[in-house]
Structures are given as structure tokens and as C-alpha cells.
Hints:
The chain is an alpha/beta fold. It has 5 helices and 6 strands. Magnesium ion is lined by residues 16-17, 31, 34, 45.
Amino acid sequence: MKQAHYMVWGSIGVGKTSLINALSDTTSNPARKTQMIDYRGMAIDTPGEYAERGHLRRHLQSTAATVELILVVVDATCPETRFPPHYFLMFSQPVIGIVNKIDLATDTEVQQAAQLLRQIGVVGEIFYVSAITGSGLEKVRQFLSNYLQ
Ligand SMILES: Nc1nc2c(ncn2[C@@H]2O[C@H](COP(=O)(O)OP(=O)(O)O)[C@@H](O)[C@H]2O)c(=O)[nH]1
Ligand SMILES: [Mg+2]
């Protein structure tokens, strides 16, 4: 199987699948509900249900051990999370944050979402994007292409 390079984590509906579609150069299908851990080229998409429940989260943790980079996505319009504080500090790989849906959020909400990422242990760079309008995605693409050789 082709080795995926990065894994996308986040709660249900934050826009993980939309983001991967937007970052991939493939014709973007509208996001379908993600039913299982989904290997899609460079990325591993994950179902929000897994991230939200402790006992399912363990499946993601073992998959995460095989990737080079972890992306944690939060929804700027809904700055809340089920991840425990400092959760992402457990990973040895770099963990970067994505604040998605900035097209719908106020500046204050965007700042709150970034703080939330810090609280759950995302210590890497934070990017501010809209998977729908494409705003901010170029920086993420550049980061990925520099980082993942
Ligand atoms: N306005 C807006 N909607 C978004 C954005 N990203 C995702 N969505 C919408 O949010 C919903 C959930 O997206 P999806 O990618 O399935 O989320 P997932 O469950 O994290 O994979 C869909 O209706 C998307 O069209 C965004 O940046 N802006
Ligand atoms: Mg999905």
C-alpha cells in the first residue's frame, strides 16, 4: 500500500474531508461522510467519530505512528473540542493546526479556535483557511510540499 504522509484529525464536521479535497489536485467531490480511516494519496482522512470517543481514538493513535505529520483541524465557528488538554503532545511527529471555515467566523472566533488548538497540545504552526473559498490554502500547500519530500 502506498504510504500516506500526513494524517488529518478533528471532530465531526470541522471540514477534514473538504480540506483534503481542496489540497489535493484531484477533481474535488463534495465531501461525503467519512466512514472509516481513509487512505487518499498523501493524506489519511479520519472519521470525526473516532476522534471524539476515547476508545475509538486508540485506533487513530496506532495509525498515526506511521505518518510523518499530523494536522489537527478545528472549526472557527465552533471553538470547542472533545480532545483532552495536551492530547497531541503524546505524538512524536510534528503536529500542526488548521483553523478552518474562516469565511464564516469573526476575528474573535478565529483567535479562540487558535487558542483551543494550543490547549489540546498543538505546538506547531497554525494556519487559517477556508476549504470552501480556498483562502489560506496556498500556505498549507507550501508547508506540506516543503515538509513532505
Ligand atoms: N463555509 C464553509 N463550509 C465548510 C468549510 N469546510 C467545510 N465546510 C462544510 O462543512 C461541512 C462538513 O465538511 P466535511 O469536510 O464533511 O467535514 P469532516 O466531517 O471534518 O470531514 C460540509 O457541509 C462542508 O461543505 C469552510 O471552510 N467553509
Ligand atoms: Mg470527513
